[in-house]
């Protein structure tokens, strides 16, 4: 079965839109295509995020904690403006989204406190993986892994050798399977109820990301 492929880089370091990825799920073949998100995509992205926050955290958090998590989760439009945010589509529908950042903010949407737009130094800092969400209808179909592969390729091409992210309990199994390791367990009570989160990190190999 074909797995996700990291996007190749074209002239000027811009990521080319990769060929569609086909995956067999429950006896049916689905086609997934990943591309850079634009500001026009923001409403559709927010719809996916809202559904993911409300549904995929059940079983990991209480309803009170899920409501509290909305205070810090969601889209950081700086990622879209920086050109480091991607969406995965299947037959015209947004199946998931996520991105990476060369800025210091580790997690949080536009209204989250503690944001820091400082540019990171690839020689000493870890690139951030940010705002990973999957439409519940496409959960466990490889969408998140596809986005992670694209983020890793792009960050490595800019000289980063490490990735860091702040995982929800619902997202932690995906990141663990992709090679991330837990660094720190924290709680964020910005929304009222404490929400458990896991800071995770992964080393990456720049040489594995071809430039063409």
Shape: globular
CATH class: Alpha Beta
Q: What's the SSE pattern? A: EEHHHEEEHEHEE
Assembly level: single chain
Structural class: alpha+beta
Report the radius of gyration as a whole number of Å: 16 Å
Number of strands: 8
Average pLDDT for all residues = 88
Tell me roughly what share of residues is in helical segments: 10-25%
Number of domains: 1
Give the uncertain stretches in residue-range form: 1-17, 207-212
Strand content: 25-35%
Give the termini separation: 26 Å
Strand order of the largest sheet: 1-2-3-4-5-6-8-7
- Label the CATH architecture: 3-Layer(aba) Sandwich
CATH topology: Aminopeptidase
Number of helices: 5
What does this structure look like?
The protein is α+β, with helices and mostly antiparallel strands and 212 residues long. The chain has 5 helices and 8 strands. It has helices spanning 42-55, 63-69, 77-82, 143-157, 172-177; strands at 21-25, 28-36, 85-90, 93-101, 127-134, 162-168, 181-188, 195-203. The protein has an 8-stranded mixed sheet with strand order 1-2-3-4-5-6-8-7. Strand 5 (127-134), helix 4 (143-157) and strand 6 form a beta-alpha-beta unit. The two termini are 26 Å apart. Residues 1-17 and 207-212 have low confidence and may be disordered.
């Amino acid at each position: 079965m074909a797995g996700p492929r990291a996007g190749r880089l074209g002239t000027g370091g811009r990521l080319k839109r990769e060929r569609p990825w086909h995956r067999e799920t429950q006896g049916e073949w689905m086609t997934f295509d990943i591309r850079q998100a634009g500001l026009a995509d923001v409403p559709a992205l927010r719809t996916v995020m809202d559904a993911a926050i409300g549904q995929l955290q059940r079983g990991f958090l209480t309803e009170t904690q899920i409501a509290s998590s909305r205070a810090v989760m969601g889209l950081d439009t700086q990622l879209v403006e920086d050109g480091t945010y991607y969406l995965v589509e299947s037959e015209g529908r947004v199946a998931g989204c996520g991105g990476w950042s060369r800025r210091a903010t580790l997690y949080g949407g536009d209204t989250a406190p503690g944001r820091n737009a400082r540019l990171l130094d690839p020689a000493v800092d870890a690139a951030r993986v940010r705002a990973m969400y999957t439409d519940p209808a496409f959960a466990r179909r490889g969408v998140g892994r596809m986005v992670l592969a694209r983020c890793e390729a792009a960050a490595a091409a800019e000289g980063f050798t490490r990735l860091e992210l702040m995982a929800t309990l619902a997202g932690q199994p995906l990141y663990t399977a992709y090679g991330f390791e837990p660094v720190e367990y924290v709680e964020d009570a910005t929304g009222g109820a404490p929400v458990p989160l896991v800071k995770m990190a992964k080393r990456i190999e720049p040489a594995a990301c071809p430039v063409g």
